[in-house]
Each structure stands twice: as structure tokens, then as C-alpha cells.
Design brief:
mainly alpha; 6 helices
Length: 151
């Protein structure tokens, strides 16, 4: 069924319904169609601009809602982001933040391989400034001076 035929059938059903029209003056199909055009048709055109007076230049523009073209701010996209929370209000500290242990709970330095994942051994920290100078004439002294190529 075409759209116009469906609209005409709807108008005939509404206009011809005796319960609908009780106590109301009869309505023609043209009147119902006109009321539908007013209710569901395009909005009426906006009034024209005021006429120019003298050498005036009149510029007219419609006020449009441009919110559909705006990019959302970082606060709207991620309310927990650093930018969103940087509003001057004090916040409770993150007790699980940087510098605080965040890994799985362990029992001291006790590590049982096979039962739990053990951390790697710590890296060796050697203070080279605490080493004594090489004795004069030794191989280390000669390598340091470039007399013997490094081995």
C-alpha cells in the first residue's frame, strides 16, 4: 500500500468512527489532512530580515544549534582522567599508587619454587669507587694506560 493510500485510509477510519465523532461537528478528510500537515509538516519559514535603511548593510543568519559538531572534552570522555580530576578539589590519595607494593602478597623473603612464582634475584650493586687503584707495573695498570691491548 502506498503512503498516500495509507494516509487516506487512516483519515477515513478516524473521520468515519462514530465513537470518535460523538459530540463533535463532522470533519472532512481535507480538514484532517490539513491538520496532519500542520502538525507533522516542516516548520514554517523564519521571518525575513528587517529592511536596510539608507546605506546600511543588513546581514541575516539563522541561529543554529552547533552542539552536534562539538568534540567531547576529556572530562566527558573519561571522568577519571587526570584532566578531569584537575579541578582544584582535594582528592583522597591513591594508597595503591606509585611507590607502594602492588604485586601479589608474599610472606617475607620466603619463596618456594613450584608453589609460587619467585622473584628474580636482586641485581649486584658494585661501588667501583671503593676499589683500590691498580699497583704500578701490574697488568691492570698497563691495560689502563693502553700499553697492553685489553684481553
Amino acid at each position: 500500500m502506498s503512503r498516500s493510500a495509507g494516509l487516506a485510509a487512516l483519515i477515513m477510519i478516524i473521520a468515519g468512527n462514530p465513537a470518535y465523532s460523538q459530540g463533535q461537528p463532522p470533519v472532512s478528510a481535507e480538514q484532517v489532512a490539513e491538520n496532519a500537515r500542520k502538525a507533522y509538516g516542516p516548520p514554517p519559514p523564519e521571518p525575513a530580515c528587517a529592511p536596510a535603511q539608507g546605506d546600511e548593510i543588513v546581514v541575516c543568519a539563522r541561529q543554529e544549534d552547533n552542539s552536534q559538531f562539538r568534540v567531547k572534552s576529556s572530562t566527558e570522555l573519561d571522568p577519571e582522567s587526570e584532566e578531569a580530576l584537575d579541578d582544584g578539589l582535594p582528592r583522597a590519595p591513591d594508597v595503591a599508587g606509585p611507590g607502594i607494593f602492588k604485586g601479589p602478597a608474599t610472606v617475607g623473603k620466603l619463596c618456594i619454587p613450584g608453589l609460587q612464582k619467585c622473584p628474580p634475584p636482586p641485581a649486584l650493586m658494585i661501588d667501583l669507587s671503593a676499589l683500590p687503584e691498580a699497583p704500578e707495573g701490574s697488568d691492570a695498570d698497563k691495560v689502563g694506560k693502553g700499553e697492553i691491548p685489553g684481553r
